[in-house]
Design brief:
The two termini are 42 Å apart. The chain folds into two domains: 252 residues, Alpha-Beta Barrel (TIM Barrel), CATH 3.20.20; 66 residues, Orthogonal Bundle (Arc Repressor Mutant, subunit A), CATH 1.10.10.920. Helix 1 packs parallel to helix 2 and helix 2 packs parallel to helix 3. By secondary structure, it is an alpha/beta fold.
């Protein structure tokens, strides 16, 4: 009998940005200068450390996230991918994604990433309105975003970009016009997120102080979500996850690893992972401060914490992540009382078949409330 391959994804966190966006709660930092050679060596050391613990895995995706990975020198991306190739086998169709901001897009750098092996790029466009780009703290203009999309589309096999809706003073017709323009740009994948106000961000502090006026009421935000589903479906990019839309076959394979409960290894400051070693599943989280992480790797000290995931932990995670995807989660991988599922079915927010539990169209905007009920 053929052995089942242990496939994993790799997440590479680059923690540096040109500026900190006021809505962002990711582990990103603004610095004047980065010693890229030192970071190349640190990533290399961490890949070698995991290679020693997990020698037999097969890599199916690599995702450079951040921060702004398009601030990485092409040599740094090449170095990381060469280390990955030396450490492990990869699938024939390995997906290698790099996040980029329009302000940091350069033709030569993109060509270098492509030569290194990057075959998918995800652009942080966020808005197709110059005034709102400024409100969001973005450094690029709409014209720069369009130029970046054109360059990415001509350089890489696959293209995705992000937009944020339910912004300050945005009407439903404003969003309709903007989304129509986005769909015309002919990406094969769109990530469309409602603006959320997170604690610990500049927007969070402003909101708590009574600022940040003009955010849409709940009903308008719900209408924007519904319009998004209608327009993307009509354009041939249906939702396959609550906030992600793709042409059939162009779904993010790396993100599907998260949503389907597979293993992924996190590298870099603040990176998270889920790994199975000797039959036991672990949650990992690296030290978040960039220079502390770098110094720890250099000195050979521990730079991540590991927590063993109990069976209940894994079921809860499987529900939280799996219900985000339109296909839902296999019933064989969860343990939820049938009475809870039945009560949610009666009000039309979930659908159970003989094999799977999924959200209905009416349930998708209510995911958090449904999870609270299922996990209570």
């Amino acid at each position: 009998m053929r052995a089942v391959l242990h496939k994993v994804g790799l997440y590479i966190h680059w923690p540096f940005c040109q500026a900190k966006c006021p809505y962002c709660d990711f582990n990103s930092h603004v610095v004047a200068k980065v010693d890229q050679a030192a970071w190349r060596s640190a990533y290399s050391a961490e890949i070698a450390r995991y290679r020693a613990e997990m020698p037999d895995v097969v890599v199916q995706s690599v995702f450079f996230g951040g921060g702004t990975p398009s601030l990485m020198e092409a040599e740094t991306v090449t170095s990381v991918l060469n280390d990955v190739q030396r450490a492990w086998r990869t699938t024939n169709d390995v997906e290698i994604t790099l996040e980029a901001n329009p302000t940091s897009v350069e033709a030569d750098r993109f060509a270098g990433y492509r030569a290194a092996g990057v075959n998918r790029v995800s652009l942080g466009v966020q808005a197709l309105n110059d005034a709102d780009l400024r409100r969001l703290g973005r450094l690029h203009s709409v014209a720069e975003a369009r130029a970046a999309v054109d360059l990415a589309r001509s350089t890489f096999d696959r293209l995705s970009f992000d937009l944020i809706y339910a912004r300050q003073d945005q009407s439903l017709s404003d969003w309709e016009t903007e989304l129509d323009a986005a769909l015309a740009l002919a990406a094969d994948h769109l990530s469309l997120y409602q603006l959320t106000i997170e604690d610990g961000t500049a927007f969070g502090a402003r909101f708590a102080a009574g600022g940040l006026r003009g955010l849409p009421e709940e009903d308008l935000a719900a209408d924007m979500f519904a319009l998004t589903q209608e327009m993307t479906l009509a354009a041939g990019l249906p939702a396959y996850e609550i906030s992600n839309h793709a042409r059939p076959g162009a779904e993010s394979r790396h993100n599907m690893i998260y949503w389907s409960g597979q293993d992924y290894i996190g590298f870099g400051p603040g990176a998270h992972g889920r790994v199975t070693i000797d039959g036991k599943r672990w949650a990992t989280e690296a030290v978040s401060a960039p220079m502390k992480w770098l110094a720890g790797v250099r000195s050979g000290t521990q730079v991540e914490e590991r927590s063993a995931l109990t069976a209940d932990d894994q079921i809860a995670e499987r529900l939280m992540m799996g219900l985000r995807v339109l296909d839902g989660v296999p019933l064989s991988e969860i343990d939820v009382s049938s009475s809870k599922i039945s009560s949610l079915e009666e009000i039309g927010v979930v659908k159970q078949t003989s094999e799977r539990l999924r959200l209905t169209a009416a349930g998708r905007p209510l995911l958090n409330a449904i999870l609270r009920e299922l996990l209570a």
